[in-house]
Input
Amino acid sequence: MNPDSSALEHTVGAVLVVGAGIGGMQAALDLANSGFKVYLADSGPAIGGTMAQLDKTFPTNDCAMCIMSPKLVETGRHRNVEIMTLAEIESISGRAGDFRVRLRRQPRFVDTAKCTGCGDCAAACPISRPDEFNAGLSQRKAVYKRYPQAIPNAYAIEKRGEAPCRDACPIGQRAMGYVALVRAGRFADAYRTILEDNPFPAVCGRVCNHRCEEACSRAAAGDGAVSIMRLKRFVSDWAAAHPDALPATGPASNLSPAGANGRVAVVGSGPAGLTCAAGLARLGHRVTVFEALPVAGGMMRVGIPAYRLPYAEVQRDVERVLALGVELRLNARVDDAAALLAPSGDFDAVFVAVGAHAGVRLRIPGHDLPDVLLATDFLRQVSLSDPGAAAGAAAGRPSIESRRVLVLGGGNVAIDAAMTAVRLGARWVGMSCLECRAKMPAHDWELRDAQEEGVALFPARTFKEITQQDGRVTGVYTVGIDFRGFVDGRPDFDELPGTEETIPCDTVIFAIGQRPDLSLLRGPAQSGGAGGNGRPVWHAATLAGALPGLFLGGDAVTGTSFVVDAIAAGHRAARSIAAYLQARGAGPAIWPPALAERTPAPVAVLSADEARAQVVSRSQAARAEPARRPAAERRRDFGEVEAGLSEAQAVEEAQRCLECGICSECLQCQYACRAGAIDHEQREQVVELNVGALILTPGLQTVRGDIRPEFGYGVYPNVVTSLEFERMLSASGPYAGQVQRPSDGAHPRKVAFIQCVGSRDLACGQDYCSSICCMYATKEALIAREHDAHIEPSVFYMDIRAFGKGFERYYQRAGDEQGVRYVRSMVSCVKQAPGSRALRVLYATPDGKSAEETFDMVVLSVGLAPAPGTRELAGRLGVSLNRFGFAESPTYAPAETNVPGIFVAGAFAAPKDIPETVIEASCAAAHASRLLAAARGTLTREPSYPPERDISREPPRVGVFVCHCGINIGGVVKVPEVVEYARGLPNVVYAENNLYTCSQDTQERIRQRIEEHGINRVVVASCTPRTHEPLFQDTIRQAGLNAHLFEMANIREQDSWVHRADPDVATAKARDLVTMAVAKAGRLRPLYSQSLDMDHRALVVGGGLAGLTAALAIAGQGFAVSLVEREDVLGGNLRHIYTALPATSLPLESNDSSRSAPQALLASLVERVSREPRIHVYLGAQVIGVAGYVGQYRTTIRFHDGRTEELGHGVAILATGAQPGTPHEYLYGQHPAVITQRELEERLAGPAQDRLELPGKIVMLQCAGSRDAEHPYCSRICCTQAIKNALALKERNAATQITVLYRDIRTYGFRELAYREARAAGVRFLEYSENDKPRVTPAPDGGLRVAVSLQPDGEQMTLDAGWLVLAAGIQPEPGNAALGQMFKVPLSEDGFFLEAHAKLRPLDFAADGLFLAGLAHSPRFIDETIAQANGAAIRAVTLLSRKQLQSAALIAAVNPRLCAACGICVETCPYSARVIDEEKGYARVLEALCQGCGACVAACPNGASYQRGFEFKQVFSMLEAAIG
Amino acid sequence: MSERPTEFSYYPGCSLHATGIEYDLSTRAVFGALGVTLVELKDWVCCGASSAHSAGAALAVDLPAINLALAQDAGHGDLLAPCAACFNRSKAADHALRTDPARRQAAESLIGFRYTGAVRVRNPLDVVVNDVGLEALAGHVRRPLAGLPVVAYYGCLLVRPPHLMEFDDPEHPRVMGRILEALGAGVREWSYAVDCCGGSASLARADIASRLVTDLAGHAREAGAAAIVTACPLCQMNLEMRQAKRPPMPVFYFTELMALAFGLPGTRAWFRKHLIDPRPALRAAGLPA
Output
């Protein structure tokens, strides 16, 4: 498939692995350890995939996380693996060997380089989300780490986008943020969040036009927007009532380092001016605000009547601004703004925000009469008079008591004027305007309020004249109109004849508009005056005016608008002025200033349907309405009309928020993060990578639990999916390992597992077998019983497919010994009992009757499907998928795809379990390594360290670094006390505390301290050494110290987390732990690993399919191979395999499989091996002796003729195959009609196939050499083999009657389709029991009679058989034991070779440098063997590609004086790293092989064995320090 | 949202003119109250639900096609078929005409019409929830059925096969429960809403039907219900006729309960036609009976 790498013009030594589950990690590590740079991309925020979610693994019941965690850490720390989270492929170009890939990376909003994973942010976050890691059974925060051990060890923030409320707000107020905090009852925090964007919460909580509420998704859901403005008022009122509860610091986001020291004048103390002043003051500038009036606040103070906005509320907000150090000069009118600017004036910049305080009069007759007022003047006069005085009594207040007042205008100001007139005691108040009632600019509620207070409305009228008598107003002469709106600022209407009317009144107030007084812009400040229309020069984006340093904003330039728009202008002015001052400080003034705009975030708009769906899970309450004073009462005074929301109302109202954005952007995480890692401004980015190959391991998803709705998932709470149950079992899961019913938390007794939900089910389009469910259900049943022995699990199944290595024993034990009940039955439906919510499972009994049984819980064993998004991924890459959406590999080319250079592995290729995934991942890595062999080592980095300091003559000088870990440790343990204590300990020359000892800057600090203080031993008191020790060791090595002069005290997991409630106890324990660590540190000695030379040749033992494939794979990656085959020909068992499954039964879209492929495959392999110069084949040779160890093996082989030869090699792969079983029952060997499947295949497809005469009736008998007492394992291939041959027989003669006698049909994966095809072709499948095996007797006609007791009901049947074909199974090679002894590798109970770890090291032996593949490992198919062989090859190459090997440093050693050479250690050592040195008379450690497990140290009766780094005196010193 | 239809062609089928006449009367009454006019098809024929499909696949489509042709000509909008069996058969036939051109041509030439697809076959449950709306429905309730605990029973024909019926969730349907909740009834959760009552075997294998029905009534009782509510005349009759345990559980048509909650006249007369007198259950719930 792959082009020869030498033919490529350019090969890139980097690989992109897509999907970072266990398969992705394995591929990444294999490649990174073979000399390639690896980019490991995952769509999620952390690597680990599905395996991280699993509790235990079958068949060893290992904890999934425990066995995976080291891989996570290794991947996370590998210098040649670059992890790219939240990434997905956008496009690809180029060709195999040289691809360019564009990756789209979603923002994480957390800087992984700074985040230490302490979790303080999550504690501060007010947003809860279903925790997908716990299958939605628990909640996490919007800022989260996928799971505790996640790599990268960093949080991420989940956002759907910017909430619509924030998007709609001119100042980007984080409305969802403070709403979320109100819901959490965190009012002080909410206040801080509001102040982040808005210095005027008291004002905007009352008089804002709240565009946020128009945008609110809750409004889209149909039951009224969240009352956002009133929640703001509630928070402001709460803050006013609780001044001591407020956070000491102001908003964090604007704070910048000192150094800004511009002088800025702000003219006008309205919302624009003060916002600008506040923003600049926070940055460190000196700001002076000039206000012409005697009060601050501008229109907020003198334009809005007190009954809507009490003066005290304005003052409260103004004072908070002044508290930032802003100087306010009242009664200080500025006549010439330019004069304020340096050099003539005192200021570097001036912001003119004088508002629009001048009223406008309509020039109609009578407009200048004394009783004709302007609304702005009127309102200002009222507000400047004593608000407490009785109506009409205050000085300077217009006297309109008992008068008839007509307000001209229909906007908010007109309403304010009218209602103020009411309160001042007017006898009658009316309003008249151009607009009709429905189109009046004032809000509808305002008009209703006014009418309630008795204001009369005269809409849709034009004013012709103010009538008078003796200079006194008598009324306004008006005409009714048909008003169509304003055109170019002029009203457009027709007068309606006959509608003339004089509205009688004695006072008229114009409220038809306002304009600014900009007389202060004179001379150069106005130059270039924009066409002479009197409007100032003004740059809308930067607010720059006509002169450098002059800025204009607010109503003064934009015309009257809302408070929030003025605040927006103030923010913009502050940013612009700051940018101007900063640029000016660095060089000549740029005018207008360069202002960087914030990149807008996508808006999280919910559709009405989505919004309605969200409402379901939240408060159903209607929108809260605050109490209002009745009209009759409120019209008498200026007291505030509307009461605030009560605390209970506010919290309930906040619960109505639908959290559109997910993250509320409240910034509490940012406040909490002491590492400064949060960055809400991160945006999606696209990166381009240049890689030679891609490996796709996007993993799996489980099918939805409701794929079979009759089982009630999603309807009955106690029906859960297997993944949910997995999380329930997990100690780190939502129930902390307690098995509980979701409905009531009760401990279930009877638990039913229903198999094949979404598997083997044509009806729901899932007609393949998901391969793993039988085993995981068995495991979950066993583990559930382990957690709670009262649990009685029942598994309802069709066939139990325990086909993998060790699976059959596991299954048998579960059923026979461990109380798991297996019921072969198809479940028809599940019903729920009312009340108890117990579940009734209806199923067919063996005798064909329907049965009902009640369970406390039902677990659905849901099948597997490719991960979401893989179809799109494959589409973008051009990778072919089969009809189920799994990646399609060519026959006998596992891990390859139709696109050269793109490989696949894991569940994306077919449903499979962990070891098969790991094997395939290694196989894919091998393909990539072979393709890119020419570029090996070109892009990888090696570490470089300074020379080590010789400390042998120095006394111990210990430095202690104690970590706060944010508040993780520091919130409990009194860290400064511990530091102080450490300073007094022996040998300690320096101690300090760090906020995060693991942060990058602290590493630099530690290096500096080591130098400054001559430290030669380092103790870090922080968290677990498992994840962090390598980091600190690297740091001190960078500082010239041996990495082992380091000791860690775990004061987090073992202390602060345990004793959270008792800081004193925790602090005392921390002192003890540090004391122990310091004591040991004083006795630490430098340790060194040994460098071992590497023999870059491999030995492959066995010339069958596995051996041939492995040899070719290693040679293809550039290394020499010796291939040793016992027989005189290559090929092994493959020589006897003639046919593959028919292509028609596979789900392939492309059809390239040929029935004779196995022999073609063999021929091709042999031919390629013969052509490969790097492979040397030794035929007819057997291994007779092995010496040496990894890197330096010497193996002796002997040929048939007795000749021997010694082969040197650095690594070896054992691929010695297995043997076909030889039945010794069912008359095999006694009757000519009894044959094996292999013999049948030979007859059908072998050389003599043409002379074959088929009998009419054939019986196939399965498990004739598997799954019995003698062979307690499943041979895995026989079911498929029988079906393959049955189909071949049917193809020859469809009339042939074929009966397959079986126990379970184990056609896992897509082989299930062949099983269905065989049934469709008329092959009969009858079940028999192992306890009542079929009886075979010769028949008179030369054939056989097979008497069988049919399962499950025991019906007796006798079958005639022309042939009886036995599935003889696979048996281990008898020579394994001898070979195993030579290589010192173990065998499994069944006699196959035993890998290092069943799950995660399926191709390695425990001993370094030895690998295995093929049938020597366990029975398997051709494609699986090929994957194993390739995988074993790259495992070998990870060693072969190194120049030298480093032995471990923390290994055992022997004190020869104490050693008695008793040999116990030699027996104990699992790595064969011990020998007795006969000459010297003591035991020796083979350092290259020792893994430092410590078993020998424990075993040694004399105490002669010791562990470096854990020497007796070191450990005793710790104990003495502890009990001291 | 499209304009709410005010008129339907109405196909009562044989049952609603005979054993299920109270379903017919109550349907007409409540739709009248909701302002929806039902115009009975003129010269409608048997839809063949009970036997045509076993007599011949063509007949099973052709018979309902005649009614569809009549409804198309009548032009009173969609065809409302209250009987679950009629609904099922007519909808299946409509599906065949809609998706199978050969089948359509055969029916067209046999009957002499041109199928336009303009008329859809509808069930009153669907119309009440999706066209009338639960809010409007609740607005008509004068006498909430508070205190009447019921279970909603759909049987097999209303919801299955799902790709033909396009009617709610085939395993856990909700429409009738939502209607009954809007009427104020205490709708009990139960798992047997779509289990077979054995109606089709009621005559041939009364023993089977009796067992199924008795089980269903038992489950309804277990769920705390005082009555079963259905939308199928076959189910209603079978459920009332074959219960083997005493006291028997009464079975309402949902339209009867709508009429009762609306305060419409005539309910008493319908209840008298039931094989199991439902009035004690109503009285126990404090409702007029």
Residues 361 and 368 of chain A are 9 Å apart (CA to CA). Confidence is low (pLDDT under 50) at residues 1-8, 251-258, 389-393, 528-532 of chain A.
